[in-house]
From TrEMBL:
<keyword id="KW-0067">ATP-binding</keyword>
<dbReference type="InterPro" id="IPR027417">
    <property type="entry name" value="P-loop_NTPase"/>
</dbReference>
<comment type="similarity">
    <text>Belongs to the ABC transporter superfamily. Drug exporter-2 (TC 3.A.1.117) family.</text>
</comment>
<keyword id="KW-0813">Transport</keyword>
<dbReference type="InterPro" id="IPR017871">
    <property type="entry name" value="ABC_transporter-like_CS"/>
</dbReference>
<keyword id="KW-0547">Nucleotide-binding</keyword>
<dbReference type="GO" id="GO:0016887">
    <property type="term" value="F:ATP hydrolysis activity"/>
</dbReference>
<dbReference type="GO" id="GO:0005524">
    <property type="term" value="F:ATP binding"/>
</dbReference>
<dbReference type="InterPro" id="IPR003439">
    <property type="entry name" value="ABC_transporter-like_ATP-bd"/>
</dbReference>
<dbReference type="GO" id="GO:0055085">
    <property type="term" value="P:transmembrane transport"/>
</dbReference>
<feature type="domain" description="ABC transporter">
    <location>
        <begin position="5"/>
        <end position="253"/>
    </location>
</feature>
<dbReference type="InterPro" id="IPR003593">
    <property type="entry name" value="AAA+_ATPase"/>
</dbReference>
<dbReference type="InterPro" id="IPR050319">
    <property type="entry name" value="ABC_transp_ATP-bind"/>
</dbReference>
<protein>
    <submittedName>
        <fullName>Peptide ABC transporter ATP-binding protein</fullName>
    </submittedName>
</protein>
<dbReference type="Pfam" id="PF00005">
    <property type="entry name" value="ABC_tran"/>
</dbReference>
Length: 259
């Protein structure tokens, strides 16, 4: 399998030296020297306690944060440190925990989907309409959802529509940041099933951030464990859950309810 993402020695430090006599004051080393790969067709989960740097890592991959050091290679193209990944545009898309963060509250779903279809894919009005109907079918929503506004939908429906927006850009990689943790358990299961179907249908790879180990065990091919900004362990899912090596991974698994 070829790698879609290759991250080498990636770091992110937030904040500025507060005073000349204490240059490290108010600095947070959110991500420390992380290297990892995401292969085509793979679901790589990133787990770790709150504040371990999961979202910062994900945000750097999609260009929402600029790395302090290290490199990101996305489908063979290198992005140097100190530059944002924004130029990767459509290849990699971020799906937020709160689907309403991906959907403009003042626009209909059709108007929101039209933006990437027009600007990133260059589709004509007729092509856009056809593609929107295909996307609604893919995320199992009725066609008339296109004329609705985000607040008219339930959390699970809104997350389906947020996935349609990510797919409208013809992404190959979705960065899913706690995509089901705001949903009821039964709705979670439906959205996880949909994610599996979309992965096959659109030949996607997922970077799946979650603190819910039961969800991770059910969906991930490999699992990366972060602790205080460092990647302490990365292994295929069965190995990590069956034979965790690092002491932190062992305590994380011991403290979590299992399926
Ligand atoms: N914009 C920012 N400015 C300053 N510090 C930040 C910023 N974003 C994150 N941090 C800090 O970086 C560290 C890592 O945060 P991050 O959100 O990446 O962790 P996380 O593992 O995703 O946590 P959670 O599961 O709670 O979302 C934390 O100490 C956080 O306070």
């Amino acid at each position: 399998m070829s790698n879609l993402i290759e991250v080498e020695n990636l770091s992110k430090t937030f904040g500025h030296p507060a005073r000349w006599f204490n240059p490290t004051a108010h600095q947070v080393r959110a991500v420390k020297n992380i290297s990892l790969q995401l292969a085509a067709g793979e679901t790589l989960a990133v787990v770790g306690e709150s504040g371990s740097g999961k979202s910062t890592l994900a945000r750097m991959l999609v260009g929402l944060e600029t790395p302090s050091a290290g490199t990101i290679r996305l489908m063979g193209k290198t992005l140097a440190a100190h530059r944002s990944a924004g130029s990767f545009g459509r290849l990699i898309q971020y799906v937020f925990q709160d689907p309403l963060a991906s959907l403009n509250p003042r626009k209909t779903i059709a108007a929101t989907l039209a933006v990437p279809l027009k600007l990133l894919c260059g589709y004509s009005a007729a092509q856009r309409k056809k593609r929107m109907l295909e996307l609604m079918e893919a995320v199992q929503m009725p066609a008339d959802a296109l004329s609705g506004y985000p607040h008219e939908f339930s959390g699970g429906q809104a997350q389906r529509l947020a996935l349609a927006r990510a797919l409208a850009a013809e992404a190959r990689i979705l960065v899913l940041d706690e995509p089901v943790s705001a949903l009821d358990v039964s709705v979670q299961a439906q959205v996880l099933l949909l994610l599996e179907q979309l992965k096959q249908q659109f030949d996607l790879a997922y970077l799946f951030i979650s603190h819910d180990l039961a969800v991770v065990e059910s969906i991930a091919d490999r699992v990366a464990v972060m602790y205080q900004g460092e990647l302490v362990e990365c292994a295929d899912s069965a190995t990590l859950f069956g034979y965790p090596e690092h002491r932190y991974t062992q305590s994380l698994l011991a403290s979590a309810p299992r399926l």
